[in-house]
Amino acid sequence: MTSTEKTTGDDIVNIYTDGGCDPNPGAGGWAAILLYKGHVKELSGGEADTTNNRMELIAAIRALEALTRRCRVCIHTDSQYLQRGITEWLPGWKRRHWMRKSGAVKNEDLWRRLDALAAKFDITWRWVPGHAGVEYNERCDVLAREARDRHKSALR
């Protein structure tokens, strides 16, 4: 299976996430789309003063918080920071008490929240290329930009 294909199966919730800022740091938006048995749920929101990476993490957190029961999940993200952070870097950060060689782990508060939520589900983390025509990734990008723009407008 390629990284752009959906994981199939009636018992899997597919989640697409995206987040971004303009400028970075600055006003940011996040979005998540949950797909399950033909149902589609779109979530989005934003913050006035944040970073791209925080918005990527919030998108995954909000998506997992929206789930009402234990299930199998496949999260599709175009953020290597999110995908590699949760699958590769997190165990080392925890072993080193949330430290990296260059200092404290950035966004530790969100990584801790995501780690606690992820423990409640059987999750596959799948990287997808951004701006490459992946339908739900493209839709998440639109939703995240709209949420970001709402926050930029509110600051004026």
What are its keywords?
single chain, two-stranded antiparallel sheet, 7 strands, 4 helices, Nucleotidyltransferase, domain 5, alpha/beta
Question: What does the model show?
Answer:
With 156 residues, the chain is of the alpha/beta class. It has one domain (12-155): Ribonuclease H-like superfamily/Ribonuclease H (Nucleotidyltransferase, domain 5), CATH 3.30.420. The chain has 4 helices and 7 strands, in the order E-E-E-H-E-H-E-E-H-E-H. It has helices at 52-65, 80-95, 108-118, 135-155; strands at residues 12-21, 26-36, 39-50, 72-77, 99-100, 103-104, 122-127. Strand 1 and strand 2 (26-36) form a beta hairpin. The radius of gyration is 15 Å and the shape is globular. 37% of the residues are buried.
